[in-house]
Amino acid sequence: MAKMNAFYAQSGGVTAVINASAAGVIEAAREHKDKIGKVYAGLNGIVGALQEELIDTSKESASTIAALRHTPSGAFGSCRYKLKGFDENQAEYQRLIEVFRAHNIGYFFYNGGGDSADTCLKVAQMSHHMGFPIQAIHIPKTVDNDLPFTDCSPGFGSVAKYVAVSTKEASMDVASMARSSTKVFILEVMGRHAGWIAAASALAAEQAGDPPHIILLPEVPFERERFIAEVERCVSEHGYCVIVASEGTQYKDGALLAGSIHKDAFGHQQLGGVAPTLASMIKKAHGYKYHWALADYLQRSARHIASKTDVEQAYAVGRAAVEKALKGKHSIMVTIERKESARYGWTIGEAPLEKVANVEKKMPRSFISKDGYGITAKGRAYLAPLIEGEDYPPYKHGIPQYARLKKVMVAKKINTPFTV
Amino acid sequence: MAKMNAFYAQSGGVTAVINASAAGVIEAAREHKDKIGKVYAGLNGIVGALQEELIDTSKESASTIAALRHTPSGAFGSCRYKLKGFDENQAEYQRLIEVFRAHNIGYFFYNGGGDSADTCLKVAQMSHHMGFPIQAIHIPKTVDNDLPFTDCSPGFGSVAKYVAVSTKEASMDVASMARSSTKVFILEVMGRHAGWIAAASALAAEQAGDPPHIILLPEVPFERERFIAEVERCVSEHGYCVIVASEGTQYKDGALLAGSIHKDAFGHQQLGGVAPTLASMIKKAHGYKYHWALADYLQRSARHIASKTDVEQAYAVGRAAVEKALKGKHSIMVTIERKESARYGWTIGEAPLEKVANVEKKMPRSFISKDGYGITAKGRAYLAPLIEGEDYPPYKHGIPQYARLKKVMVAKKINTPFTV
Known about the structure:
The structure is a homodimer. Chain A has helices spanning 18-30, 46-50, 62-67, 90-102, 114-129, 156-177, 196-200, 224-238, 274-286, 297-301, 308-326, 353-356, 377-383; strands at residues 4-10, 36-42, 54-56, 105-112, 135-140, 184-189, 214-216, 241-246, 261-263, 269-271, 290-294, 332-338, 346-352, 395-396, 399-400. By secondary structure, chain A is an alpha/beta fold. Chain A folds into 2 domains: 4-142 and 305-358 and 392-400, 3-Layer(aba) Sandwich (Rossmann fold); 156-304 and 366-387, Phosphofructokinase domain (Rossmann fold), CATH 3.40.50. In chain A, strands 3-2-1-4-5-12-13 form a 7-stranded mixed sheet, sandwiched between helices. In chain A, strands 7-8-6-11 form a 4-stranded parallel sheet, with helices on both faces. In chain A, strands 9-10 form a two-stranded antiparallel sheet. In chain A, a hairpin with a 2-residue loop joins strand 14 (395-396) and strand 15 (399-400). In chain A, helix 1 runs parallel beside helix 11 (308-326), helix 4 crosses helix 5 (114-129) and helix 8 crosses helix 9. At the A-B interface, helix 6, strand 9, helix 9, strand 11 and helix 10 of A face helix 6, strand 9, helix 9, strand 11 and helix 10 of B.
């Protein structure tokens, strides 16, 4: 096969380690200049391909690409753009192939979650259909850890570590002042449909009785009275109560706790968060002094406290995507397989995209404690290795030094603009 | 003077490095066993002294005390208990001296902010008045950085580093998705009266145009229209806008932005935060998609990203308190003095408590940019060295290993209980 260029794009919510996958792709491709020409990255994800806004990564130095390994967020830009279904909108897929053909792109590496796995598959199918077959390979990424067939999703381990460490530290703060001050602390974390991130906070507990005392997961229907009673039990037993709540915490009927509407000072309706909602429930029931934190983007961008395991896996799936493509593989998602051994170990595997696309992996009930407020030994055994190890970025004057790209754009070859 | 014991207590809001000061006190005292007997720590601060709940630190191993240097929060417990004025309530001061006399305590090391400096002075005065002179020395601590006479307050540098690093990371997240997603990000940080913590977020900017784009300080009256316009200018110029707001952000008339009242789903009135209030203003004016984070206790307990400079200073002021006491000094606060040199350097100094007590150090106007939304070169020159250097705690299984004390209590010698 003639030497073809490669296209790489980042999709959906970014993570602390998605750029490590980019580094893996680009460094692996540079090692095979005989087979792969240039690696073009989509500016702001797939939208960059649709609009023919391609970043020429060959213009970035080896040290800059290496620095991507310790740089959070999406260095090339990401987007929340889901291509429409095949039948409703073939034009978008045709446009993609048109752009890929124009730039001699034979490899499509798409770095994202469930939606992008679906897009990746569609691109592969359409490219064959249009007689310009492209090797489309999906590189897993999501802090939600909800991708199927892979033991874990790159990006999750680092959020898990951030949440576990932050829960431990904030809990010690509360414990040291609970007698005369704050008795209840609530940390709201990400996770709309799956509670993986909140569950990881349990790793902060190293001994029986250690916080967090209550973890709220979307998988476990919220029962207000039982929750209120549990908080009281915690405060009387420990002197304080630390709660970690998923943003997707919901009642049995599926109504989100975050759904309570507040009217702010300007008459503008806004969605109240889970944490303040829980806080006011507790205040009303017990009158305890409370504090709450909303980590929001801090949790998924916290490269300064990334999991070494997560960084290594993110880099490895990027490299593997290129190596598998060179072996002629396509329409697959690279996966992480956990070794069947006492000591944690992992290898790289793969799964066919037909099976991956749009399947969501929830937390197994066997990982959740009987009362629904914590995790089991089995859950801990799964989660613990994912936050193992530290991988600090370099610092200068007290600030982490993250990569800054030149982002040299590739000259356009198609003159018809495309609006998304 | 006969060999006397020492009393050490932690006061007010805890920090990531207050235990480093405790380590400094205890290790220095252990080096002078000829002059100082045991170091007793107050359980939950000064309340522990009033209730004769004293922790015998001699029962803690050298390695445990050394580990306090990298352990956040108040290991002996702290409290928000301000002794009343001399005249209203001499009983409390008399009780303190009574307890100190009963346990042969000749040294009083009080680790806290402005209020505790006042308490420290009162204890010194009362002890002389009662004929049992105690050498009271104040060890500075406050994340608010508002203590006078000292160049900075131990505890501040680490919060400053956490806020600067978090602002940088979250900003990169927003920047990478702004085109199709969130355009405005707001981080609410501590600082009711002084904007030191919010100001430190400016250190995240290493090049012109880098975020944060708008910093809101209590020192600068909030003007809604000007703010709304500035946000729009930022989004059109950079594609997104990152705002760091002090919890104490207020209007010209002193009304707090955080004062807007929300009625939650349960009819319970709660104080809305600054971040959501700003977010809804922006949403109403521009319709931009926004996200916001509330760091709360995470920022002051984040020992995992502590400033090395801050840790060293916190430890040094603890040691210095003991060394100064042994030189016969009392009724002073240990201070940090910045050297008059191009390269940052510092030494230990002292200030008389009469002058320190209840004086609050605001940010000088010369540190704040003309438009009030950022800091000047002078402000940066002051702040930058305080976040210099990293001082990581040890980790095990991905979790920082923080000290756990045995907290062996000293047998009570006074049988009359004292209720606070």
